[in-house]
Amino acid sequence: MATYTIKPGDTLSEIAKVLGTTISQLAKDNNITDVNKITAGDVLVTPNLKVSAPTASSSISSPTIVSKPSTGTNASSTGFQYDDFNYDKTFSYDDFSYVDYEESDDVKAAKDALETQLAQKPGEYQSQWQAHLDETIKKILNREKFSYDFNGDALYQQYKDKYIQQGKMAMADTMGQAAAMTGGYGNSYAATVGNQAYQQSLQQLNDIVPELYQMAYDRYNQEGQDLYNQYAMLGDRENTEYGRYRDSVADWQAERDYLTGRYDSERDYDYSKYTDDRNFKYNQYANDRNFAYGQFVDDRNFAYDQYSDDKSYAYNEHRNAIEDARKQAEFEEAVRQYNEQFKYQKERDAVADAQWQATRYDSQQAALRGSSSSGSGSSDTGKTKEKAPAPVEEKVTYSSIEQDLNDFIKSGATKSKISAYIRSAKNAGYITASQAQKLLQTYTPRGYTY
Question: How far apart are CA 282 and CA 279, in angstroms?
Fold first, then answer.
């Protein structure tokens, strides 16, 4: 089995020529569905064709038909040798290089402005009112429930001192008035009325307690309301301060977003210019590289085409020499076979002529004997028979053969003898096979066929 490694620029028709086969056979041997698509590096195979050497005929009865030598082209069967294609040049080209991106002055200015803004980000909110709010709410939540103890009420003590003093003065006046009525001497009556005046004064103190309770309760409520009002005021101040802080944060964020957008726009524009220039330079590089590679491929293909042409020429010369030798051998063998066949045919013709003459002579003799017997009515017994004359050589035609057959039938010849006569005439070449068949059907009906 011969193999061939596909090289760049090869076509299946060229490979078929090299391998001495056809495109269709090569495609069939290698399961190729599209003869226009082959891949460099693939290995094609083609079976070797066996060549039968011409043989001389050894018998004139069976001439030999000589096989045609194969036209295989692999070195093992034809002896053709040729160096493999070798292209010592390799394609090389510098890699594409381009400077790294560097921001422009406008981009750097926008970036600096953004970084300055980012550095000025407001810190976490610090409340100056939160401690006051916590303290006030603590007072509100931890305030004791209202309770009143008049003994602990300073106003009650003032009223108490006042009414005791007034009671004592009323008691003294009353006792003095009672003593005057009795001549200036003290007595139990004076003491009793004096004590009653004192108790009446103290009773006025007791009557003032509910009023003092209400006053204390109102004061408790007012203190609570004051705490709520204070908490609300502190909350307003806190909200105001926090609102100002949020406004400052919002202003900072707006400025930051503006500067970010300006930086992004500047950088995108600047980087787009960079990439456009880089892509333009790369396209130029790619075009130059492709052109250089195309030249390399063209040079390599040209070299391979020259190699293929040289190899094909050398192979054709080699094949022509083999073909010339094969044709010479075939010619000599054909001459030898023709001579043997001609000699064989001459011998067969001589045999056929002898058989024809003998058969015709026997038929003629039989016809003569039949005619003699019918003329005399009896045979001449006891007499020596005369030797029949030898048959006269005459030109044999289809009409003369029919005349002979008619004479044979009149003389009572059998179908086998008639058939043998017709066959010998055909073998001698006097009539054709179709003429022999016609005579058999006419003179031996339903008897013999050729």
Answer: 5
Percentage of residues of the chain with pLDDT beyond 70:
81
CA distance 107 to 269: 9
Q: Which residues pair with 44 in a beta bridge?
A: 4
State the burial class of residue 203 (Cβ atoms within 10 Å of its Cβ: 0-12, 13-18, 19+). exposed
| Residue 80 Cα distances to 21, 133, 317, 320, angstroms | 15, 111, 10, 12
Confidence of residue 108 (pLDDT cuts 50, 70, 90): very high
Q: Are 446 and 425 in contact, with CB atoms under 8 Å apart?
A: no
User: pLDDT category, 369, cuts 50, 70, 90?
Assistant: low
Specify the 3-state DSSP secondary structure of 45. strand
Query: Using only C-alpha atoms, what is the Rg of the chain?
Result: 76
β-sheet bridge partners, residue 3: 45
| pLDDT tens-digit series, residues 195-223 | 777 788 778 778 888 888 999 899 999 99
Sign of CA dihedral 192, 194, 198, 200: positive
Q: What b/e string do you get for 227-257 counting C-beta neighbours within 10 Å, with b at 16 or more? A: beebbeebeeebeebeeebeeeeeeeeeeee
Cβ contact 200:170 at 8 Å: yes
Torsion on CA atoms 285, 291, 297, 299, rounded to nearest 10: -130
110: amino acid identity, one letter? A
CA distance linking residue 450 with residue 434, whole number of Å: 9
pLDDT tens-place string over residues 136-147: 999 999 998 988
- DSSP state for residue 68 in the 8-state scheme: P
Q: In 3D, which of 62, 36, 68, 63 has the Cα closest to residue 50?
A: 68
Residue whose pair of structure tokens reads 């056929």 in the numeric block: 352
The dihedrals phi and psi of 44, each to the nearest 5 degrees, come to -100, 145
- Give me the residue label for tokens 């015709």: 360
pLDDT per residue as tens digits for the range 307-322: 989 998 998 888 888 8
CB 178 within 8 A of CB 195: no
Report which secondary-structure segment, H or E, holds 5. Answer: strand 2-5
- For residue 43, list its beta bridge partners: 5
